[in-house]
Specification:
Order of helices and strands: HHHHHHH
CATH superfamily: Ribonuclease III domain
Number of strands: 0
Shape: elongated
Strand content: under 5%
Structural class: mainly alpha
Number of domains: 1
Number of helices: 7
Mean pLDDT: 81
CATH class: Mainly Alpha
Length: about 140
């Protein structure tokens, strides 16, 4: 009986943590499996690995950063650099590990840079591109 209550307590704590993450990112998961993988950095197989989710999230963040820069800013800040160099540097700054850790801290999330990317990958897997894009935009605001 004692062991049973310990596991129930752990499960409740995990659910509360997931609820907290969902509240902070403004997205409610339909299936929390990928969220669990990210929060616990679980490596299962090629389909359920946090590194795969982080790769999805990284690609999504780069796209959202690109879209933001193209639509809102003058990307030619330097006459000495080509468009590709200037744009690439600015996107890399936005999606840098340092900036992603800052984003996590500002949102009150105890995540690494990979964790932020993985979280976005998990949202993408659960809710599709548009939902993940909304979460990414909120993160980058």
């Amino acid at each position: 009986m004692l062991g049973s209550s310990i596991f129930k307590t752990v499960d409740i704590m995990l659910i509360n943590t997931m609820d907290d993450v969902e509240d902070k990112i403004g997205y409610k998961f339909k299936n929390r499996n990928d969220l669990n993988i990210i929060l616990n950095r679980i490596t299962l197989d090629k389909r359920g690995d946090y590194r795969i989710l982080a790769g999805k999230g990284d690609a999504l963040l780069r796209f959202v950063a690109w879209e933001y820069l193209v639509t809102t800013e003058d990307v030619f800040k330097s006459d000495k650099k080509t468009f590709k160099e200037e744009f690439g540097e600015r996107i890399n700054d936005i999606v840098s590990d340092k900036n992603l850790r800052k984003i996590a801290a500002n949102m009150g999330l105890a995540l690494t840079a990979d964790g932020v990317e993985g979280l976005l990958g998990a949202v993408y897997s659960d809710g599709g591109f548009e939902e993940a894009k909304k979460v990414a935009k909120r993160m980058l605001e």
